[in-house]
Amino acid sequence: MEEGKVYVGNLDVAAKRARDILLGKLKLEKVVDWANAFSLWPVHLTTSCCSTEFAATFGPRFDGEQFGALPWVGPRQTNLIVIEGTVTRKMACAVRVTWEQMPHPKYAIAMGACALDGGLFYNSYNVVRPWEVIPIDIYIPGCPPRPESVARAIVELQRKIRGRRVASSWIREGWRPDRDYVAPKEDYCAWQKTSPLLERV
Amino acid sequence: MSGAELVEGPRDYEATLKAARARAESALREAGISFSVEEGKGFVDLVVDVDSIVKAAEALKNAGFTHVVSVTAVDYPKKKSIKVAYHVTSYLDPEIVGGIVGLAVYLPREAPEMPSLSGVWVSAEFMEREVYEFFGVTFKGHPDLRPLLLIPELAEKRPLRKDFVVREESIYEGVPERVRRG
Fold first, then answer.
1. ipTM of predicted assembly, 2 dp
2. Alpha-carbon distance values, A87 to A58, A113, A172, B134 (Å)
3. A193 CB near a chain B CB, below 8 Å?
């Protein structure tokens, strides 16, 4: 019986070499950015009332799908969060968990006055600024914004991805070069741990 | 459930409220519960003692008030008391449909505690949880008394009491002092 050969290699090194060849020598960067810009999948994460306008954006009248974005089901298959309005303390935990679950390259759009700086509820005890929770790419003003502005934000995000080579450099570097990775200052899910008030009286 | 048919369309609210109030007062009198009446435009509150509130609730339920619209509380820091009000009405009794009567009780502000009425009206359960987290009123005998909407750190501060301070809205906010003085 003939002795077989065993190939030993480091998978990480091989993947890095393949990545360098594809993105560096073959100049696939533009293709990656182009493909990424037109496959934006917003996750269904409804934090507040702006979601009605968001739903109208992808309805038949305003038809957001023509710009290359369509809401999709779970965070594992999506790459865009549209924060629709006010983020409460409990919802901030859900936003962060969803963001951590999404594969990179991923983007975030903050929609509405409440997502900019609290809006109507700016002095409320229960409201969190979304830019403290996840890194935001595009802000849309308005209360609520019209569907046209949501479509405009998607087009702007595509321009940003293709113009700054966000997606390809993110894949090549492993992190996003033009933005620091935002780690939240506090643990928004801490309330789920044991508290005397959560126990039944 | 006797007498008139259920009428569709808009109803005369004053007349309905009058009928509902008469029904509630006679029910409390029959049960031998002393009460005082607080009324204003469009609302009636029947204020009873803490000791007799469960008996009063059962009397109201037997008289046809089967549905709790809301449970709410008002903080009176100067009187050092908290008023808890159960707004009750009926869906089915044609005489009092839409007439909302309040069953209220005054509690001391330092340690507000009262028996839970979720044993009488099941729909009061979640609303009592909200009163618990926003005002700190403890309901004895409640099946599951935990904060409903707020995180526990916020619920400990009792945010709807009058002494909870929020940042005020002002046109001078963030303006330097010398500009403010003019």
1. 0.73
2. 22, 11, 33, 19
3. no
